[in-house]
Amino acid sequence: MKKLLINKNLLAVIVMLIGIGLIVIGLLSGDAVSVLNKARRICMECIGIG
Amino acid sequence: MDKEVSEKKAKQEKLSNDGRSASSADRSAHNGSGPRRGCGSAGRHGIQAVATLIQNANFKGFFTGKIYTGAAKKVCVPGLNCYSCPGAIGACPVGSLQNFLSGMTFRFPYYVLGLLIFFGALLGRIVCGFLCPFGFLQDLLYMIPFYKKNQFKFDKYLRYLKYIVLLVLVILLPLSLPLTPAFCKYVCPSGTIAGIITWFTTEFIRPQFGWLFSWKLIVLGIIVVSGLIVYRPFCKYLCPLGAFYGFFNRFALVRMHLDESACVHCGACARSCKMNIDPSKKPNSMECIRCGDCVRACPEKALHIGIRDHRANAGSTATSGAKDPAGS
């Protein structure tokens, strides 16, 4: 039973590491700059202008 | 052994009787009309308020209508908070995801997806219960004394709608129609609130608001009015972020642990749950937002939210997370 609990925590850690890996790949390929470029301008669709 | 079983049975009987007498109080708390439960939920609302303020810390933007353009906007916040809100200091994960998917040239959203997976695997839907500004707004709405009907016939069918929203409006439509963030454009109530603030603060932009804004106002109006009657209708039926994080609830690092040896199946947790879940059967249901009402309601302290099971740590014979029915 304790083993199952550890397995679930291990799974969570592995998935978190996958997430971190994707973040790093994204950062290296300039995704964060793309996010910034979109977020620093008013999104017309979001506020309902279209 | 027999003695143990009979003791447990007696305890269960006693608690069931108590539960029956307390059920009306539970129901009124459930409906939001009764006294609010202890400092626990007040503490959660405090955390929600702080999280909302931090995510919208560009306070002068609310008066000038100018949005924040600093480097912090490279980072997606975990909850639903429109990046076009004048107060927002971070990027919206749903908007950013759609921006990648609906670009003229397709780029896989490694960074945004990575952040969402990281938040999901760490916290699951704790994000909904503690960090999401729109979730906080709905919590406040439900506190307003009004006609309450949190359980109704089509509730369990409507819950599937959010997965359709995630698949169709957030993924498929932006992928197939370039430059169309369909969820943000037609549904997102957080964006509509940002639009309302912009309407009030930026005069020259007002003439550009047309039918789309009217449509979004209707959607927001429906969500707000239904939020007075039903607990968190947007989270239950429409939110694509909640749908996404729900997949992680079962194994997220911080999750619910049920000590089955302590549980007497009195039903207090199910009665206290405003998301209409029975935590004694599904402690890690995809619908659970980890508000903690069930933890506080449990007379036997059989429920616990954390990384490790508290009873297992204490060295008791608890079976808890081990036999975690885990939202299956």
The largest interface is: A-B, 41 and 70 residues
Radius of gyration of chain B: 21 Å
Helix-strand pattern of chain A, N to C? HHH
Low-confidence stretches of chain B: 15-39, 315-328
Net shape of chain B:
globular
Query: Biggest sheet of chain B, strands in spatial order?
Result: 1-2
Helical percentage of chain A: over 70%
Averaging pLDDT over every residue of chain B, what do you get?
87
Largest sheet of chain B: 2 strands, antiparallel
Q: What radius of gyration of chain A results from the CA coordinates?
A: 18 Å
Percentage of residues in strands of chain B: under 5%
Name the beta content range of chain A: under 5%
Content-based structural category of chain A? mainly alpha
Structure characterization notes:
The complex is a heterodimer of chains A (50) and B (328). With 50 residues, chain A is mostly helical. Chain A has one domain (2-47). Chain A is 80% helix and 0% strand. The mean pLDDT of chain A is 91. Chain B is mainly α. Chain B folds into 2 domains: 38-246, no CATH class; 253-328, Alpha-Beta Plaits, CATH 3.30.70. In chain B, 53% of the residues lie in helices and 2% in strands. Chain B is globular. The two termini of chain B are 30 Å apart. The model of chain B is unreliable at 15-39 and 315-328 (pLDDT under 50). The interface between A and B is large, with 41 and 70 residues.
Q: Key terms for this structure?
A:
heterodimer, A: 50 residues, mainly alpha, 3 helices, B: 328 residues, Alpha-Beta Plaits, two-stranded antiparallel sheet, 2 strands, 53% helix, disordered C terminus
Helix and strand layout, with pairings?
The complex is a heterodimer of chains A (50) and B (328).
Chain A: H1 2-28, H2 31-39, H3 44-47
Chain B: H1 2-30, H2 38-55, H3 61-64, H4 93-101, H5 110-123, H6 126-131, H7 133-143, H8 155-158, H9 161-176, H10 182-186, H11 189-201, H12 211-229, H13 233-237, H14 240-246, E1 255-258, H15 268-272, H16 293-297, E2 303-306, H17 310-313
Antiparallel strand pairs in B: 1-2
Helix pairs in contact in B: 2-7, 4-9, 7-12, 9-14, 11-12
